[in-house]
Amino acid sequence: MRIKSRRSIFEELGQEWTMLKRFIANRIEIFSKDYDNNLEIYCNVVSYKDLSQIIQDNILCITPDDSEKRGVSGLAESLEEAERYSDTDIIYNELRDFNRHTNNTYKWLILNKLQKILRKDQNGKFPIPQIVFTLGEKYSLSNEELQIISIHFLTEEWNIFHQKMRSESISESLKNISSLCCLTTNRYAELIGINNNLQKKGLIHYQSRFNSSGTIELNPSLIFAINSNDLNLMNSGLFREERKAIYTPDKFSIPKVELEFLKNTLKSGGSVLLSGESGIGKTEFAYSIAEHINLFIKEVLTDSSLFSNNSMRSKSTLADRMLMIRTASNIIQNKKEILLIDEADAILQSASGFFGFSGNDGSYDKGELNSLLEDIEIPAIWITNSIEKIPASALRRFAYVYEFPHPDMKVRNRMLKEILNIGNNENLNDLVDSISRRYDLTPSAMERMVDVVNSVITNSTENKSFSDTVEKYLETASRGSLRHDFRKLPAVSKSFNPELSSASIPLNEIIERIQKRTELNKPSRLLFEGQPGGGKTQFSLYLASAIGKEAIIKKPSDLLSKWVGEAEQNINAMFRNAELSGAVLIIDEADALLADRGMAQRSWELSQASEFLQGIQDFKGILIACTNRIGSLDPAIRRRFHQKVTFGTLETGMIYKALKHLFPDTDFSEDDLKKINTAPPLMMSDIANASEILDTEENLESSVVVNEIIENAKNRDMSKAIGF
Questions:
Q1: Helix (H) or strand (E) holding 352
Q2: 3-state DSSP call for residue 63?
C-alpha cells in the first residue's frame, strides 16, 4: 500500500494552497542559492506532467554517453510511476541521483526550465487561501496579518519548506520570512509583536530572543482547523466536552464570605486563581460555582499535541497552551461562559527573568505571562497546586487568589455518603462516620477507593464484606505512595478515658467554654501544662472530637529547619492551614518553640518566637499548646492564652478506676492498692504503659501489674512528653 505524501494532503485542501506554494517557490530564488533545496521545492510544486515534459525534452531525447545510460533508465521508469500516482516526489528522487551520477551536467538546465514554468502564472499578488481569508473576517485581521498566517502555516506543515526555514539564523530568518510575506522586516516584526492582533488573539506565539524562526508558532488548534478546512474546529479542538457540576458550592469547606468574594469576582468578569493540593476538589468547585451563577464552564484542554501533523510538534509545549488560552479567551461569550484553565502550574510557574528562552527549557519571559493575564477580559478560573513559584507580578494580575482548603470532616462525610449513595443504610452510615473521623480523604481518593473496593468484591470468589474491604484498603493506601490522599488523622487512644484526667479545671467545663466561644465566632487559646504522661495531648485530641472538629498536631520537628527563614515560613503556613481547615491546632512540646526570648542567643531564635507570637495573636480558631516546662515559655506568649489548665498526678480515688479501666480482668487487693499508694505519685501514662507492655500476658497476676506500674513511675523521664 502506498503512503499518501504531504503534497497530496495539500491538494485535498484545494489548488489555492498549491498556488501559494508556487508563489513561495518563485520568490525563494531571491535569497536561496542552494540548488538541492530549491530543486526539491520546485519539483514539489509543479505538476508531474510539467516535470515529466522537461525531463523528456532536455534529458531523455538527448543520446547520452555510456556513463549516463544507467541514470536515464531510472529517470524513464520514474516518469511512468509518477504518471500512475500523480506524484512528483518519485521523479525528484531519481533526478537528484541522476544529477549526482552525471556530475550535475543538467542541473542548472532543469532548474531554469522549472523557474520559467513558475513565473508563467505569477501576477505579483499574494494568493491568500480562502480558509485564511475567512479567518481574517472572523478575527478582523488585515491582509498583511493573513499573509503572515499563510506563510507560517506552510512553515509548520510543508516539510520541505519547514526544514529549510528552521536551518537559518535569526537574521536570515527574519529577512526571508518577511520577504515571503511581502513585508519589510520592520513591518513584519511589528505585526508579530506581543501587543498586536496576532498574539493578543492567540493566533501566533513569537519569542524574539531565540535563534530561530521556529519560535514563531501558529496556535495548534488553528493548524488543525486549517488542515481540516473548517474554522469551526478551532472550538472543538480547544475545549473539553461540557458537563454538569456534581456538587453545589455549599458542599465545599469554604466560608460564606470567601464564597461571596469568589462569586462576585467572576460575575464582574475578573480572573480567579484557585490554589491547593491535587485531588481536593478545586476543579469540581469551579464547575459548581459557575453553575451557581448561571454561567457555563469552557475548560481549555491541557494537551495540544494532537492538533499538529508535523513530527516536530509531536509534544505539547507551554507555547501551545498559551496560544490556546489566548484563542479561547477570544471565542467564548463574555456574559454566558467562564474560561477554566486547569493544571496551570507549568504556565504560571515557568516564567523566567530577563534571560529566559522560550522553547529551550520550557520557560519564557515574565512579560509574556503578564501580558496574557492582562489581555484576558472575560471571567476566568485558573487552577494550580501551589503559588510558591508563581512570580509576584503575575499574582497581582488576578482579581482574587484563594487557597482552596482540604475538605473538613463534615464535607468528607457528606461527599462519601453521596458517592456511596447509602440512603438509610445504618451500617454504611456508621462506616462513613468512622472513616470521616479517622482519615483525611480527598474527593478523588474517595472515588478511587469506592471503585477499587467494588471491583475487589465483584471479582472475588469469596463472600467479602464491604466494610472489611474498605478498612483493609484504607490501611494499605495510608501507607502507600499516595498516602497524602489517604492521610490517617491523629486519633484519641482507645484506652483514653477523660474522666481519669487529673486536670485543674473540669474537662466538661473546658469543652463548654470552647463551644460557647466558637458559637460567638471568637478564638480559643488554651495552655495545657504539667508533667509528662498527664494526658495533655490525648485530651486535646478528645476535645477536638467532642466538638466535631479535626485536629492538627505539630511538633518542633515539623516546624524547625536548618535553613534560615524556613521555620518562620512553616509557622506561618501552620496557622494559615489550620484556620482554613477549621481544625483544632495542637502544638506539642511547645516549650521548645515558645521559649523565653530573653534567653535567646541567636537572631533566628528571636524571629521564630516573634513569628509565633504574631501567629497566636492573629489566629481565629482553636489553639492548644502543650508543655512540660511552663516556666520556659516566653511571658508575652503565656499572656496570649485565654486559659491555663494544669494536668497533674492521679488522685488516690482515681487510681483504682484507672486500674479497672485498663485491667478489667485482673482483681486488685487492698495490699496492691496500698503498695501503689506508697510508690512515687502516678501519672496516667504509668498505668497505660503497663497495660501496653502486659497486654499479651494470660492469667495476669495483680502483683505483676503493680510492680510494672511502680517501675514505670520510678523510671519516668521528666524531660520527655509521653502521650497515652
A1: strand 351-352
A2: coil
CA distances to 9, 13, 240 from 19, rounded to whole Å, are 14, 12, 36
Which of left, alpha, beta for 279 (phi over 0: left; psi -120 to 50: alpha)? left
What percent of the chain clears pLDDT 90, i.e. is strictly above it?
A: 19
- Cα-Cα end-to-end distance for the chain: 77
pLDDT for residue 308: 45
Predicted structure pTM score: 0.69
CA atoms within 13 A on the CB side of 643: 19
Q: Rounded distance, CA 700 to CA 198, Å?
A: 85
Residue type at 250?
D
156 secondary structure, DSSP code: H
pLDDT of residue 595: 65
For CA atoms 555, 558, 561, 567, the dihedral sign is negative
Helices (H) and strands (E) counted in the chain, each on its own, are 35, 16
Beta bridge partners of residue 155, listed in sequence order: none
Contacts of 276 (CB under 8 A, 6+ apart): 282, 385, 403, 404, 405, 406
C-alpha cell at 215: 519560535
Q: What does the pLDDT look like over 611-646, one tens digit per residue?
A: 888 888 889 999 999 988 887 777 877 888 888 999
Q: What is the dihedral of CA 667, 671, 677, 683, to 10 degrees?
A: -20
Query: Model confidence over 80-113: pLDDT tens digits?
Result: 777 777 777 777 777 777 777 776 667 777 778 8
Cα–Cα distance, 341 to 223 (Å, whole number) = 21
Task: Taking the CA atoms of 312, 314, 318 and 319 in sequence, report the sign of the dihedral they define.
Answer: positive
Angstrom CA distances, 632 to 25, 571, 592, 595, 596, stand at 85, 19, 9, 6, 6
Give 692 or 121, the one with higher predicted confidence.
692
As a whole number, mean pLDDT of residues 551-567 equals 80
pLDDT-based confidence at 33, cuts 50/70/90?
A: low
